[in-house]
């Protein structure tokens, strides 16, 4: 099938202000063989007016008589779909113009793959500027889904035969976590997932949202996870992750409760998390303070220090040690925010945060280097090494101000090593020696690293083989 029809299903409820951009992103696809199905899930806003404003025959508009939830709305769209492939798009997200073209090409090249997912641009809260790129650096596993379904619905494309499997979809009124059930059941049923390694979705976040019924929403998440753990097909090594998965859910919803100053709920959820995994309070910095820091940093419009201070004011007594980590967390937050801002060419923000990080004594350590390198690798993967090179150059004076010349050398070396392994794993053996020479030049001690010498020698060997030597 050279030109399969793709059906894009958009569940719509309460997001009319963003729906037009989602529709426009579909109509602007480079792949022309599609239909767009918008399912109005009894939305109280002007969703219908937005859809009716388009006079495009490829748009199908369906309505629920009562609100049934996003999963049910997606199912309604799938049942009406004529496509060979089914793509999902949330009403407040939008597609890259090449989204459909690249997924179709992948599924045509790999007929055994039943579902494809792509990387995504994570937008800053209530903005269209990019804050990060989400990318899986290894194949997805069932454990990934139960630990927090990293794939958003808008990232996914399914073959029709998988999308039509009603036994895989859960229409219970789960506030959150329905995707855990869907993706987990797909995996358990034998669906192979393929990675389209490009950022093809723009995922939007909203400032000022207040979440209701946090305890109920957390329980919904736990119910979704338990649905997979309780499946007879779930392997023992995944079932062994139950405490870690449940602890993660309690941590997520405790962070919302702390930020919203719902002290009683926050105590209940934090205590449940700590009971499952007491070690999340151990170490300096602890796993829990790192988690709360990233939660506080979520909205770039807010002062993460003020958000974190408010959160720590409401923690239970058994977590009081977290307050001692507040100075470290605020400084680290400025360091991370400054780095992201410089990477994404927001120099004024970057300069401000790096200045604050230096004033607060932020430390250039191994965990920061891993964060920095992770972001640079994602940027390089999306835009190419040539585009990433000036980003590295922009970061150098800021990194030097925090950690000195040694920190700059460590950043360059770590980045070059990651690039060398990526090129090696892609069988681009000609590129490996150059990356390793850059790493050795930045940190000569790496010459003694057996793993690096191994891939260097193997790369030379495979190059000779390819040349008939």
Describe the structure.
With 469 residues, this protein is α/β, with parallel strands linked by helices. Among the domains are: 6-203, Spore Coat Polysaccharide Biosynthesis Protein SpsA, Chain A (Alpha-Beta Complex), CATH 3.90.550.10; 364-469, no CATH class. 53% of the residues lie in helices and 12% in strands. The chain contains 19 helices and nine strands. The protein has helices at 16-27, 47-52, 70-80, 99-109, 142-146, 160-163, 178-188, 214-229, 236-239, 242-259, 263-276, 287-296, 304-313, 326-343, 347-359, 366-383, 385-425, 432-442, 450-466; strands at residues 6-12, 34-40, 59-63, 85-88, 94-95, 115-123, 130-134, 156-159, 193-203. Strands 1, 2, 3, 4, 5, 6, 7, 8 and 9 form a nine-stranded mixed β-sheet that branches. A hairpin with a 6-residue loop joins strand 6 and strand 7 (130-134). Helix 13 (304-313) runs antiparallel to helix 14 (326-343). The longest helix has 41 residues, at 385-425. The two termini are 41 Å apart. The mean pLDDT is 95.
Tell me the fraction of residues in β-strands, as a range. 5-15%
Question: What is the overall number of helices?
Answer: 19
- Please name the CATH topology of the domain at 6-203: Spore Coat Polysaccharide Biosynthesis Protein SpsA, Chain A
CATH superfamily of the domain at 6-203: Spore Coat Polysaccharide Biosynthesis Protein SpsA, Chain A
Q: How does the major sheet shape up?
A: 9 strands, mixed
Helix proportion: 40-55%
Secondary structure class reads: alpha/beta
